[in-house]
Amino acid sequence: MKKVLFYCLVAVFVTAFTGVRAQDKQDNISPQRKQAIDSLALEKVRDLSKYISIIGDKNTPWSEAQRVIERAVELFMENSEIGVSSLSRPDVNYYKVREYFDRLMQLNYNKVNIEWYKIQYVSDLERQPDGTYVGIITVYQRFQGYDKEKGLVYEDTTKKDITVYVKRKETQIGGRLIGFWDVMLGDIRVKETSK
Questions:
Q1: Domain residues for 105?
Q2: Quick check: is 17 in a domain?
Q3: Is residue 21 assigned to a domain?
Q4: What is the Cα–Cα distance from 78 to 32, expressed in whole angstroms?
Q5: What's the total number of domains in the chain?
Q6: What are 2-27's pLDDT values in tens digits?
Q7: pLDDT per residue over 85-129, tens digit each?
Q8: What pTM does this model have?
Q9: Nearest residue to 102 (alpha-carbon basis) of 62, 131, 139, 74
Q10: Within 10 Å of residue 181's Cβ, how many Cβ atoms?
Q11: SS3 sequence of the chain
């Protein structure tokens, strides 16, 4: 009896797995899977927020900042750029991801506070012709730069749009090819900067 039950369970699992694989092969995202992907994308943005705070913190040892930069770079698609704005100039400068983090480490302040808040999707994931899904997550960044003698010398709030890419990938586990959806961050565009 136990053997029959075991084979029935295996048959149900294989049928369900095959159904999921067939669905995945069509590059469709079920509502449940989409919810999981949305959560993963938001989690990656929150991780990036933590990494930016660590990298920008003047008390972070150089070796630790370098380790965190490596982790932060892994969140992004190749050739992604991050926008930097200032209240003192009207234009926005864009830097490759690694260059942005290197510049962040070298900011000319004694202390830097960077906080992200109101992290939310503003555009739903949309399927592209190549099967990739693309969406936009908006964040607000509060930046504060301090001088040793003068205290707070610069502060702004920037609204930023982060492009999110969801791509179908495959990996081999135990000799079997397993498909999965991966979330990567793309360009971070400055939408507005205010005091």
A1: 29-194
A2: no
A3: no
A4: 28
A5: 1
A6: 444 333 333 333 433 433 443 444 45
A7: 999 999 999 999 999 999 999 998 988 899 999 999 888 889 999
A8: 0.80
A9: 62
A10: 17
A11: CHHHHHHHHHHHHHHHHHHHHHHHHCCCCCHHHHHHHHHHHHHHHHHHHHHHHHHHCCCCCHHHHHHHHHHHHCCECCCCEEEEEECCEEEEEEEEHHHHHHHHHCCCCCEEEEEEEEEEEEEEEEECCCCCEEEEEEEEEEEEEEECCCEEEEEEEEEEEEEEEEEEEEEEECCEEEEEEEEEEEEEEEEEEEC
| Crossing angle for the helix pair 97-105 and 31-56, to the nearest 10 degrees | 40
**Six-digit token string for 26:** 């069509």
| Tokens of residue 126, six digits | 């949309």
CATH classification at residue 98: 3.10.450.50
Provide the pLDDT for residue 101: 97
Q: Is residue 6 part of a domain?
A: no
Give CA separation, 65 vs 68, 71, 82, 115, in Å.
Answer: 5, 10, 18, 17
Tell me what pLDDT residue 18 has.
Answer: 38
User: Mind listing the pLDDT tens digit for each residue in 66-86?
Assistant: 999 999 999 999 999 999 999
The CA distance from 29 to 124, in Å, is 12
Structure tokens at 185: 């961050």
Does some domain include residue 91? yes
**CA-CA distance, 108 to 148, in Å (whole number)?**
11
